[in-house]
Amino acid sequence: MAFGLIKYGLSPSYPGKRFLSRQPELKSSYDVVIIGGGGHGLACAYYLAKNHGVKNVAVFEKGYIGGGNTGRNTAIIRSNYLTPEGVAFYDESVRLFQGLSEDLDFNILYSERGHFTLAHTDAAMRTSRWRAEVNKHLGVNSEVVDREDLKRLVPTLNLSEDVRYPILGALYHPPGAIARHDAVAWGYAGRAAEMGIEIHQGTEVTGLEIENGAITGVVTNRGRVGCGKAMQAVAGLSGVMAKMAGFKLPIKTVPLQACVSMPLKPFLDPIIVSGSLHVYISQGSRGELVMGGSTDPYPRYQTKSTLDFIEGLMAHILELFPFLADVPILRQWAGMTDMTPDFSPVMGETPVKNYYIDSGWGTWGFKATPVCGKRMAETIATGQVPALLQPFRLSRFEEYSLVGEKGAASVGH
Amino acid sequence: MTRMTSRLAEPFGSLIDRAKPITFSFEGRSVQGFAGDTIASALLASNITMISRSFKYHRPRGPMTMAGQDGNTLVQIGPEPNRLADRVAIKEGLVVKGLNYWGSLERDYFALLGLFDRFLPVGFYYKAFYKPRWLWPFWEAVIRRVAGLGKVDVHAHHGYFDKEYLFCDVLVVGGGPAGLEAALKAAETAGEVILVDENASLGGSLNYARFDEVGARARVERDRLIAALDARPNIRVMTDTVCNGAYADNWYPLVKANRLYKLRAKTAVFATGSYEQPLTFRNNDLPGVMLGSAAQRLIKLYAVRPGQRAVVVAANDDAYGVALDLLDAGVEVACVTDLRADPPPAPLSAALLKRHVPVIAGVTVYEAEASAGGRGVCAVRLAKVTSEGIAQIMGDRFVCDLIAVSTGYAPTSPLISQAGGTFGYDEASAMLAIRSLPADVVAAGSVNGAYALDAALEDGRHAGWQAMRSQRLAAGDEPRLSAEKGARGITWPFPIFSHPRGKNFVDFDEDISVKDFEHAMLEGFEHVELLKRFTTNGMGPSQGRASSMPAIRLAARHAKRTIDETGTTTSRPPVTQVKIGHLAGRSFDPVRYTAMHFRHLEAGARMMSAGLWLRPEFYGDPKQRAALITAEAKNVRENVGLIDVSTLGGLDVRGPDAAEFLNRMYTFAYAKQPIGRSRYVLMTDQAGVIIDDGVACRFHNDWFYVTATTSGVDAVYRSMLWYNAQWRLKVDITNVTAAYAGVNLAGPNARKVLEKLCKDADLSKDAFPYMGVREATVAGIKALLLRVGFVGELGYEIHVPASRGEALWDALMIAGKEFGIRAFGVEAQRVLRLEKGHIIVSQDTDGLTTPWEADMAWAIAKTKPFFVGQRSLEIQAKQKFARKLVGFEITDRAQAVPKECHLVIRGTEITGRVTSIADSTSLGKIIGMAYVAADQSEPGTTIDIRVDGGAMVKATVVKMPFYDPDAARQEL
């Protein structure tokens, strides 16, 4: 039995002090207001306090913390991207994730499983090699593996050639991991609050006050507060928020769906992704299979599940693992993703002075939670955009300087 | 006392057929039941009361709802994990096992975990195991092994599943009294009504509940309704069928046996009833504690006597019906404890009084005492209800082996919620009630608040009428709603009792007890969604059907807020478990064959996927792949080859604005394109990125036949329609890809072959030059002829109606025999086109490639007023671009040969990658295309390519095309 549990069990005052502090009254102004209490907003708050001593910060969340895409995504963490800019960025995130449980003193159930992106076409094999080569160049562990390797590494995978899309090989990324998504949001929230950050749930930002091109305050359903700086981190509603700030984003909001099975005894360690079949699957620590695919075919601001999606997804899952036909599905859900044209995020400055943006996270936001939080905190605290974030600036779209990650991000979120 | 369950004599057991015994095995023991039994009923009839072990503490569990609403009956059936024993009918030879134990179901070593519960607080895994970091993988493996329920058999056979579409005017979900009445009423004017019920037999509560002193009324009502139903041929009854979700636009998945029906209904009536709710007290999860309705189902449906001596916990009159039914089944009722201090007079309680059963008012069961090993109940201790959720223990102890709980209900809301209906809390009845319903959705019966039988019947008729009114086909006047609904006073408002020693479970799936909620809230997880996620309440197999309302009650009490202020959690599909196989069905995945597909197979082609199509990669033995590809390519260069190009996209653009339309869609100029000529087309998106290419053939002034890439044509077609919806040019655009079969006949002998088969066109160089297009007859088939040069030889693309593709192929192969014709595949074509320096969009371009980078400035018209991407391209033309697509060659044969997507490296920087590479036999060297830095793009520059293993290979940038730079051969 782990020592931590004995401590809890014997403590007469358990549960002792609150992990998430009580919600305070709104102050009239804050140095920094963070709009959106998902993983990203909370991480930014945490690093503002921890790394930069900026503690007069409020996080405004219209629902409950981690209730948007943080709590809806399938919690895959990897850095096997395509562009050098993307690989370097996500690699820092993976490194932060690896030590995050200790850092937050809260177990986020980070579980390194290995990540396979299956290739069923020669085009997919080419992309796999491209990613592996770029990854290796930047010190990220990725390798192209063939059918023989797969037979050994994923023995339960259906490698038959008598299927619609036989598997030719895969991109293997050993550091690929999963984690408990809620725990990431809670861990950041708890520790940020401990350092004096205010987290206001049920607090919706309904307007922004901008004077002389600079942010001066935000209007919420609980009243107006002033702010020195503000950041929006609102995922699917990024476009709506940007409109309030008076600028446009090259972002479309598209629903993304996923589902879980009933819990099963462990039989699948790695995370398996297939671009051609538009599926990915992993087995979580509770034993449930977590499965998803590509985004819905059209943009919408809603989170309704469709039958069409889960029918297609399950058909393809069975092509990879035919023995799962009798496994019951437990729950299906959807989130709203903010998709950019180049499948890379938008971070940094905006046309509004002191108003920062953290958006364009499409289907790849969870895995960037620590690095984005840390580097956006640095951006806000110092007023300087770090080199790691520069390629992801909003102005790249008018400069024709995109960071093309479609080949690495369209299905294997 | 030790629990004894047994089979009752007739007339009990409406679902079982005693003439048909069935034998199956449970935990290695042979068990006998009857046709109609579920696994759970057959086990209980054989006095097997423990079915599985719980998720966290591995506590013994038995049936609690007998309606598939709890996770206590999850079992493993052969290779099928996590099936509900109270839903699955027994079959001869089933092999059933309990879940989640280490050792045996009877002796589970992990059950010791229950003793350490104080060390395993709610969310314990967040609080430990991560220090030191290196030990976490060990703990993780332990946690994973202990978690999880059923086992997957990785060698299991993929069984047969299929799908069927259904349509109806009215769908009625739920075949209880309200649903039956609704179906009957709607059927008076509807074309077709489909009535769905998850049970084997229609009637719902009429099959098991008790509505009057003698217990006769249910039967009378059921017989009446079933007789009326039989007289309505336009009602299709689907029993044993689960309506498993409500998707947009009245789209419903119905699961029955191995089939998923997909139903589109004009109107849906949800008569889904209500879930009886458990009561939370210490040890309320022991086998032998069950809902009153579960005891009634066991007795009436399966003729199972659920115990010998029962204590009934009541908070409504239905509980007294349970007590009466138990007495009728020969169960001794030790007492009825009624939570209500002053139970109002009611028919069933009055009837029970006559049977001399002690009724103790204002009292609850405080704890159940476990029999040996915790496998059942041996007694209860009672307590006086003093305030909300608090009870004062009394001295009374009753020996019993069964506790039947009837203390309240919750509407079966999932389908209505998923359909877009909303629920709010009704303080008067202490239950959720419907606040709003979407259009074309109607609710009836207890889910709609009509709990009394008369009210449910009436509400059903009203709903059936309403359903047809929404289709303007209602029969007669609106039926009256007069009866007392009976929702008030049947649900105890706070059915959760604290106990200092805990084990008073709210969520049975995940072993979450009252203190777990209290601790979670004290830690700050007070928002009802956070509470759910932190405790994992309602996230298990039964998805909170019994636990979500108590959790909200606890959260509301903690925050001193109302239930409505506290809020509810969201219901998500599916409603109940559905197998992956059901959703997948037969897994139809479209595959497209060209007209010549079987000729390729006959010729030994190795097929490859190209989008949805299959194309010959090469012909012959895969072991000789490289040699075959080389030989195929060589034959094109030296004789004549034939390739199936049917998969190429074909778009017919016709109309007076056809040329103008192409001018806007593509980068080149088409207004002055002569009739009878083709011209290259390059498509860019609004960002100036290359997205497709092909040729536009002008056959008439107003008719262009435009080709597109195999994988790109559908997107090109969509995009054309999308743009023209705005431009409104006078053109018709048709995707004719599948209408034509096409071949490319290429090589120095191509003309000779074609001349044998084509007599109505002058094929001479002058009459039909390179880039010319003609309508002609080939082998008696009307064809479009295109003189093209993709592979760099004299060549004709011949496009004919797809139905004649095979005939064309055969005729050409025969005619070409004397000239050494040979079919060639995609791989040979790739080599040939690379020698000519032609790009393949999406292989040599990526998501960001512009025509400037691809050295295709020649394809951009300079004087057009507009085309898609023009603005971006003009801006980019003024910028420095970072990379360029170039040709390269490797002449030093001693070096390793790079592969496509190997990187071009300069110092520590990635400057590009190889996009195409081939060993060109006609040129005697390795040739390829690669992206390089702009300053590396001058011919003669040496570039370094890193190959497998990390070695650097030197290559030289050269001007393309590599082969026949003057294009003399294709213009022969």
Question: How would you describe the overall organization of this protein?
Answer:
With 413 residues, chain A is α+β, with helices and mostly antiparallel strands. Chain A has eleven helices and 19 strands. Chain A folds into two domains: 189 residues, FAD/NAD(P)-binding domain (3-Layer(bba) Sandwich), CATH 3.50.50; 150 residues, 2-Layer Sandwich (D-Amino Acid Oxidase, Chain A, domain 2). Chain A is 29% helix and 25% strand. Chain A starts with a helix and ends with a helix. Chain B is α+β, with helices and mostly antiparallel strands. In chain B, strands 9, 10, 11, 12, 13, 14 and 28 form a seven-stranded mixed sheet that branches. In chain B, strand 21 and strand 22 form a beta hairpin. The model of chain B has no long low-confidence stretch (mean pLDDT 94). Classes of the chains: A alpha+beta (413), B alpha+beta (972). Chains A and B meet through helix 1, strand 4, helix 5, helix 7 and helix 9 of A and strand 7, helix 2, helix 3, helix 12 and strand 31 of B.
- The number of helical segments of chain B is 23
Strand content of chain B: 25-35%
Using CB atoms under 8 Å apart, which protein chain pair has the greatest interface? A-B, 97 and 101 residues
Rough shape of chain A? globular
Fill in the CATH topology of the domain at 644-818 in chain B. Gyrase A, domain 2
CATH architecture of the largest domain in chain A: 3-Layer(bba) Sandwich
| Average pLDDT of chain A | 94
The percent of residues in helical segments of chain B reads 10-25%
CATH superfamily of the domain at 644-818 in chain B: Probable tRNA modification gtpase trme, domain 1
Please state the average pLDDT score of chain B. Answer: 94
Radius of gyration of chain A: 21 Å
Distance between the termini of chain B: 102 Å
User: What is the number of helices of chain A?
Assistant: 11
Largest sheet of chain B: 7 strands, mixed
In total, how many domains does the architecture of chain A comprise?
A: 2
Measured as a percent range, the helix fraction of chain A is: 25-40%
